[in-house]
Records
---
Amino acid sequence: MSANTSIVMPGERVTSVEDVAKGKRIILGPGLRRVDDKVVASKAGPLRHKEPNTFWVDSYQRRYVPARGDLIIGIVKARAGDMYRVDIGSADTASISYLAFEAATKKNRPDLNPGDLLYARVLNANADIEPELVCVNSNGKHGKLGVLQDGFFFKCSLNLGRLLLRDSCPALAAIKDELPYEIAVGVNGRIWVKAHSTRETVGLANAIMTLEHAGYAEIDKICGNLGSVLQA
Amino acid sequence: MFMNSNLFEPGKSKSERTFVQSAVKQNIRFDGRKSNEFRDVKLTFGADWGTVALSMGDTKVLAQVSCDIGTPSSARGNEGTLHLNVDIKGVAFLDEVQATHDQRQLTLNSLLERTFRSSRCLDLESLCIATEQHVWCVRVDINVLNHDGNLYDASTIAALAALMHFRRPDVSFIEDEIRTYSERERELMPLLFLHYPVSVTYCVYKSSTQPLVDPTLLEENAADSIIVLSFNSYQELCTLNAGGTAPTNVRTIMQCAHGAARRSKALVQFIRKALELDAERREQPMQVFGLMDLLNETAPKLSFKYLMEEEAEVDHTPDRARVIEQKSDVEPMQLEEPVPQAQMQTPKKILAETTEDDIAWLPQEQPVDEATPTAAKPGKAKPNRAKNKGGKKQQSQTTKKQNDSDSEEEVTQIL
């Protein structure tokens, strides 16, 4: 990920990407669009680049648009036939089948109630069909997916979720030095945290929320102070 | 920050609610406050009379008072009208909350109606121009700009501050003709008050006996029941709104009432102080801030913590003040009662603090306000109001004068 950040606006022609495209095949991520032989931005935000050839716009957003394979946190809303309705922050509520849990059968149903938190993977995401979730991988094991017990949960911008999830994020490592904790980050802008005591969890949640308005550049600076936030 | 900062409403999942319950049990709040600690209240007055922006933490409210001449209702031909309107549409959460939103607006409206109209805090008779023909219709519009809990307090404080800030033009009614004087011809007139009510909100949880004051939205949504108490500056109860599922005993409610009465008094004092400062600022030309400044937050803010801290140091050490001035600044704190300055209660708190923990204050509370808070309904406030009415003619035009005498009255009562 390159450090140079040029801000693009919707409708702006992004010549820097076009230049790269002349030499090799490139991948346009969210926020960039190809119009004839030009590359045009469709969202406002800093232009990001990942080696070798991926470009996208890191726009500030809170509304989640489901995409296949995303790991998300959802709130169970209701039971509906052999499905649960799950709120994942998208325009439409998602659904998850009773059978999409490890070792679940028609007789042995998972016990979920409205208000429960689910860490799940998006199986299907289509503009015309409601998104479908699963809590098992292709081997039928739950892995890290499933119901999240206890802990605290809060909603944030999608950017904060992405920020924490990127490979080289210093924040989680910085907190790790202060206290042991568990965290689940959904790319739909929802974060679940759990530490040993209530007080620690509160501090942890507050520490992560302070990162909300941090850019990639400031985050290192803030991470230095996270210890003091946790103390408070 | 005048934008809806949390697009998704917190407190909707089970884990949030159980977590808040367990945090309350251990006396932990997310913003590090104590259970009886309030967020700082900040007031900003606009260029127009009766425009007030208020922020309490992330909760932001804009109140605007306007008036015009209309006809009175047939039942009360000699009284002006007061109309209150809350608009919560500025806050649009993205989750499915439309139903709760409408509900919220209704409760908020009814609370304001009861706090300001049913308690008859404005002297509506003074708004009469010609009986059964022409009266002033005062309208308060409250716009919720951001909702982070405790809209009740935010809107009542904003409404009261706006009403107190408001000036209406003078009119004369001669030979069946109304003449409205412009600001240049005659000075604008402030509204006349009989008393000054504000509300204080408490959240009660099943897991804890200690109610939380001034809840954030998360705390509010996780609460089992919410108690809203409106007190006026004479510490008379104007409105009590208690609902929800948590069993609350008399003791808890009395404890809340006790705290709320003190808080209301401090708040009204704060509003008066803020108004004074605003009046001072208006003396200087080019110092008036418009709506844009208000929303951009370039206008100066009058903070409760800041103003009342001064209050605690200056006003309530009347005799000692001169002596102390020669000594160091630390001295007044020590001489004064050991109030944690951050908590910002009026020094009256100290009188109560000694008796707060035991049940003893329950009956003792009465002498302060001639009627027990629970029993006091708007009608019971007569002694004070009569006093106020009588004095009105002398105090005629300047509110400031009226304010002074009010506080004197209160002081004598308490002592």
---
Amino acid sequence: MKTLIISWLFFGMAVLSGAAVAQTGTIRGTIYDEASGEPLFGVAVSIVGTQTGAVTDFDGDFEIQLSPGTYTLSASFISYNSLNLEGITVASGEVTILDNLRLTEYTSDLETVTISAEAIRTTEAALMTVKRNAAQLMDGISSAAFRQIGDGDAAAAIKRVTGVSIEGGKYVYIRGLGDRYTKTVLNGVDIPGLDPDRNSIQMDIFPTNIIDNIIVSKSFTSNLSADFTGGVVDIETKDFPEEKTLRISLSGGYNPSMHFNPDFLRAGSSSTDFLGFDNGYRDIPTKGVNDIPQFVDVIGNPSGERGQLYQRILRDFNPEFGGMRDQNAMNFGVGISLGNQLALGDNTLGYNFALTYKNASEYFQDAEYNLYAKPRDNSELELQPLERSMGSFGVNNVMLGGLFGLAYKTDLSKFRLNLIRLQNGESKAGIFDFENTNLGAVFEADQYNIEYSQRSLTNLMLSGAHYLKDGDWEVNWKVSPTLSTIDDPDVRVLRFRKPTQNISTEVGLPQRIWRSLEEQNLVGKLDLTNNHQLFGKMAKLKFGSSYVYKERDFVIQDFQFSTGNTSFTGDPNQVLREENLFSETNRNGVRYNPLFIPNNPNSFQANLTNLGWYVHSEFSPVEKLKAIVGLRAEKFDQRYTGTNQTQTIVFDNEKVLDDMDFFPTINLINSIREDQNIRFSFSRTIARPSFKEMSFAEILDPITGRTFVGGLFEEVTNGGTEVLWDGQLEATRINNFDLRWEKFLPAGQLFSVSAFYKTFDKPIEMVQFLSDPGAFQPRNVGNGTVAGLELELRKSLAFLAPKLENLFFTFNGTLTESSIQLSESELRSRQLTAREGQEISAKRDMAGQAPYILNSGIAYNNFVSGLEAGLFYNVQGSTLNYVGFGNRTDTYTVPFHAVNLSINKTFGLEERIKAGLNVQNLLNQSRQEVFRSYQAEDQIFSSLNPGTLINFNFSYSL
Amino acid sequence: MKRVFKGMLFFVLAAGLLSACGEEEVPNSFVSISGIPATAVIEAGETVGPVTANISAADGLATLVIRKDGSTIETINFNGETSATHEFSYTSVDEDANKNVVFEFVATDSNGDSQTVTHVLTVGEIATVIRIAENITSDQTWETGKTYILGDRIVVTDGATLKIEPGVVVKGEAGSGPNATALIIARGGKIDAQGTETEPIIFTSVADEIEPGMIASPNLDADLDGFWGGLIVLGRAPSSFEGDVSEKQIEGIPPSDTNGLYGGDDPADDSGIIKYISIRHGGSNIGEGNEINGLTLGGVGSTTIIENVEVIANQDDGIEWFGGTVNVKNALVWNSGDDALDTDQSWAGTMDNFILLCGPTTDHALEIDGPEGSFNAAHTLRNGTVRGHPESELGDFRDGARGTFENIYFFGFSDPADPEAEGRGDLSLSGDASLENFENGILNFNNLEVTLPAGVSLSTVFRNGTDVHASEVALGENTVGADKSVFAGWTWAAVAGELDDL
């Protein structure tokens, strides 16, 4: 925190001193090659009618100081058409930005391109240039678009990208392929996720005001890590702000069904909860105790030394088990960002600082979590309930994010230093009516839940880029350590059986859980690029190496409370009242039982190293054909330290994965016309099991009652004679084929059609244990394939009527067909529980693969009036989520038809004021997952209604 | 962060070392053994170790010989490895008592060099308390007069027999959830626990100060539960499973432990003999619907003999059957935390002569479930006396329950119609399948007797038409019920006077 304050002061002063010297105005710009989309080095830029000029650096950047006035700028470069830009206004002390100038290769019929300064306002078109010319398949969204659609965080923004959807408001799905096959990187380097169960990181932690652009690469090139299949999402933060900015923003969100609600549920909180972390209020009562006493140790002597320690620990548990009803406020957020670039002699220093704070609450009424199963009589088709819980819960989410970036540019080098710190705290309290109709236990109960989860991420990135004078060689390096932590201190669950208000093993004993995960991550990368001539055209040879080290420590400590002969009134907060607790005089009172001593199977350390080498060449073998051909090699080792429950298997830093793989890749792009490309790509990629999957962990989720079983355990049947799963979890190797035709039209219009096909060798899916259907384990299942078709369109409606030229129709849709060969055990299980008349196929859909994704919208952009508005629609087809086993059926997501509206407007002469309104879920849809079975009515697995959220934001630039 | 940087540093150093390393000429090298302590002290019957001997021999290891008092007890041959480890443990026998036992570890390399390490084990008196920390994989006997501590979830594995002599006390160490201690007789394993009327075998917790020869706990009340797991017997007899799978994981044992599987196709399977045992203060809970019962019988076959069993203060059910064909004679359950007797998955045996003493946390005296798969079989419960509690119910017959329930006497339950009782105190048939079975004579009741609270009708207590098989009697005037004499003397309930009024 101290460092932040110091940097804040330092930059405050820098801003002030910058203001004092301003007398002339500045033009800053960037020039790109229209054909390659890359910055042009050495372009002569002059101001017509003056002696003033500049030459672009390796980033294509130039800067010219001028006295106030209106000018015409001319840019010229050998073998390119010159560009004249008219009507550039320079004001005293102001910076005029021309960040999107493009030169076209020399043509005889057109010597000079003249355009007006007005026409280059939008950078969305610049991104389109990158996309048009990049050899790999990519899509993206830039900071200009964030402003346009008013999205506050990366998760909201990235939904606009073709074939991308967001699950649970946080996680990216590309082309409907699940989280396992998607990867998120920050500034080109891996950073660990905040959720241990996920491979990708949650996107909603990145506020859009620190992001320059988000690029989604759907095809692999060998300079990227090979562990993605659907796509890799690269979030690029800002480096050199074009002008001095100091922006203060305020935002609010109001949800009529959630806010100012007197029934909102919350639990006791610490004084720092509002900053996204707990100050020790939820500390484990056994903190600092090495030898935790158990009840059995002290029952005989409650007042002895151990007995007193036991009683002290018992009394240190926060007695609150049920939340309280208390009115909530609406969502609000504040943000401040500032940045500038300063000339230091011939060199340039850029800085960026952003601080974001968000505080949001959600209240879900009639939330449902159920379990249904097939009846045992196979002539009965309708599913029968095993467990049902319906109730409400309140969520308070606090997000504090800080970004600090420094960039320094000399003639031939650029250095960047980025520090990101994110702190997120989420508090939940819920009350449910629970009904169990499962075999062996029929009861109703009141269920109370309290949870708190705090996550932090600290990432430091240092990078450099160096160019040789003649531009032939380029060296890039990056070093980036990250520390991330997740703590779930004091998860509380309690059930009272109805109507007797007692607590027993039948309804489950009250539980308190402390979970903690710490992950350290170090990434180093070195890339070398050589620009040369091949077949008479510019070509590039790239090669380099990368090193990734990751280490994770994970531990769960859980306690159960036996209630002895205590009777209760049904008030959850009275269970741990003093008079109920075990003591000298109340030996059969409420007591704790630690479940994690002496052996804790839910504690492990794991680490991995991944050393990669690659080489690839970008060249044009024939006219209009560009190719990238490359090969990557990765040596991957994963090690595990942990034990099974009875400690009969002990792994001490044992190698659990040891792979050496080669990943060839071919990307071809054929410009069949000036504005049309055909692309083809083939690549081999990999999906590796996660730390948690490659473990002996056995993690019981007290809320769903499901147990996660690590992939290292085996399962046998028929008296051990038949091995259902051998405990040898392996990585999945994937072959990817892509074909795309695209047509670019003026003013950022686009039309493209793609087809893709992927084969999966032994994909990993969550499979239920045959002998215990409540336990799930990651296993390699039979081989799978995914075939898909993608369509993207962005079209101005000017063709209907010229008046509609500012109205754009956007559509992108992905249609996929996936199939997986059932494993022997799954096939048998499905046959055993088949309904009468049901045919069991040996194939099924791939879990997590959406059959279709659709994004569409109508957007209005008027740059003159500064009004932007749009209506957007997003839906993802019903997707197989959990694979059924035994009498449990498959679960599917129910399509959520999201219709969102956004309006943004700028005000004032210099457009200093921006205001926006954004309405989410206009159709008031609920998010649901269902159990689905042959000819049976779907039954709800989970159901949540997010309501309709109205967000507004206001920002002011100084 | 430190570790990451250390990792980096290590990486760089390792790379440097790799290039620096070269072959060196070494003449004759010696053998070394480390890791064996020079001395240790145990009591007779206890185990030393396991300790790990680390042996290195640059010229290649040939053999490791372990001698006890001069005579070889173990020879391990190697194939020229330059280093090896060997795990050693020794369980002392009664003859070792009050002696020093000398162990010699002799490692010899390929050219005849050897190294000897000596370990002197001082063995004290014959231990009367023996901690068991590992699975029982070969025949073992627990001896009269001794107390055995379960240090973990101890499994008698396939092929092994655990003989427990009369009067033995078995105590489970503290542990809950995955750490719950329990004694599991896995499929193919056998228990031979034949206590006697004067010397019952007692299973309890380490918190219990009971010693061999005692019946009642000197320090624990009879309602303290959940201190350890329980006794789990698993066999290969048929059971009716969901989805008609051939075997299943028993409740309370995580699916990753395959010793928890039960079920099969041998109705006459033999898991051994259990006679005169008392199981107390157990029932550690793993999760909801995942508890350890006092005595869990999963797929136990009909050759198994189970007679004279007492279960006291178990946090979950007293005795629960999951399928199987075993018959049980003379059972007493007192203060069970959930149900006293619980049957599932088409148990096909008979429970003859039982006394159920409900406690404040007892849910149902009888919880009877039907088959879970297509395999149907039924069981019989006869000659029982059930003392109720205001919080408890007589019985719940559900989920297609089948079988015969006869000559059972109930008393001491609430009036189900009393608002205070909130519906407790009845005997009901739940679900259409159970009602249908009752109608079709698959679920039968004969000669049920009850002493009702004043002013309560038979049909209020015996619901769904079962009242026609029940008759009301005055307290103690019952003509059916258990023969309590078989429980005299060896059960804590009898010693505590709980049977006096029956």
---
Amino acid sequence: MIIHNITNSLINFIPEVILFTMSMVILLAGTFECLKKYVFHLTVLSVIAASLIGINYLSTDSHLLFNSSLIKNNITEFFKYICYFIFLIQIVISKEYLKQNNLISGEFYSLLIFALLGCFIIISANNLIVLFLGIELSSLSLYSLIALNRSSFLSSEAAIKYFVLSIIASAIILFGFSYLYGISGSINILDITKYANNNEISNLYLFSYVLIFIGVAFKFAVAPFHMWLPDVYEGAPLPITNFIASIPKIAFFVFAFRFLNNNPIIDDENFSKLILFLGMFSIFIGNLFALAQKKIMRMLAYSGVANAGFIFIALFSALENNFSIAAFYVTSYSITTVSAISIITFLSSKKFNLIYINDLKGLASKSGYIAILLMVTLLSTAGIPLTIGFYAKYLVLDALVDRNLILIAVIVVLMTVVGLYYYLRVIWFMFFETGFNSLINTSGKFSIIILSLIPASILLIFLFPDLVFKYIFEILT
Amino acid sequence: MITMSHYLVFSALLFCISVAGIFINRKNILLLLMSIELMLLAVNTNFIVFSHYSNDITGQVFVFFILAVAAAESAIGLAIIVSLFRIRNSLEINLINNLKG
């Protein structure tokens, strides 16, 4: 019986098993001189193989695996496939940049796959221990990835900052877990939810949730806890920034979803006020600080802070356990931010590293197509109509108005208008200034085709938003 | 008589001390690592207390996982500190301020 359970669980968990084995193989291949040049191909191959084999085992009903410590259902699989998509784009685009900076090695790709694996475990965890191990697996690999460029002072500095703040976040989350375990006597998240539904919410329960969500706010970089994000964006190698900006956000959204789903805490007045405060504060700080930035990655970091605030407001407005708006927002934001950072990675994959917004001037005169791709992406992050970002922001505001919080909705709209300024400034530099720096890379047909995938889907989803939104709505309710 | 609440207050205090240690400390990065370790130990105390008083072994199993992860974390932290020291020749926190906008 036990053996049957384990084999059954393993079969359902086969994509992760493949990723784990392949990351070991890649680490080993990196040490052989003759296999060294194939690590990139091996990585792409293993991620594609894992995603394709995973399709075979998709099913519509939910499974509990490994003695109910992992969960597998439509929600987890949907987010995992978005992660696969994002991850593939990231590694294909970043190859030239890595070659330029001498970062291609077995351990780089191996650690990157481990970070992806950690995020997958966070997505499907149903047990506090497994959840903790997933968080640590992804963040431990990310610390070393940030510091991998050993000759760069900025990378080491970004790594130490990320290291300290990320561990503080993990420890705060763990502290919350310990109280949760003490109150409910179980480490199974479904049991904890059941306990909360059968008993009145005590102060200690509320306290543990506050601790857990402060930790989540650290990981999302929501405003009072956002200090590490701009530094990491600036200091880390661009492909790693690309990873940090997108995939852990999806993973931690599912984490938040798992803790709030069907839980009466969502209707608790104090708790929802905390979430709302964090969201509003983050929108303020993010948009105002982004105005003053001269470096493009720092600007994107502060825009990320503002968008994380939107995610928290969407969580707050999740009336009647409907998290589909927040899920749609997370999906749209992570896809657009990956597109923006990928384009910057592509532009700086020759001899010149793109750092200042100034460096983009005259891009349209050299390569109008790339300028248009970047423009579509930035407008989507800003929430301009004709892009997916507009639809996502509209849904959040609509939910706020439905809850009769019109004042808050108005403030959010005003701050978004403030935010428009710094996106438009980049577009201004690209289209209306002259003096293009010829060291910036604009060639590479294959990369440009890959880069146009996301802006194309951004525009397409705006035309048919119901296709995606209805699907998300279906799986989350 | 030492009751459960004494232990809980003790671990909460330990946690607060370690958080204060991280934010007040302006001198040495190594002290940061120690504070982080203390933070995780406070969590461990909590788990052991709950596990002992509710006669449930899972809490203590959790502690083993936390200890193992804490060891891995310090190893990586020390590695980062070594690479920082090689470039900078100093471990002062005040000097780590090259990243700004």
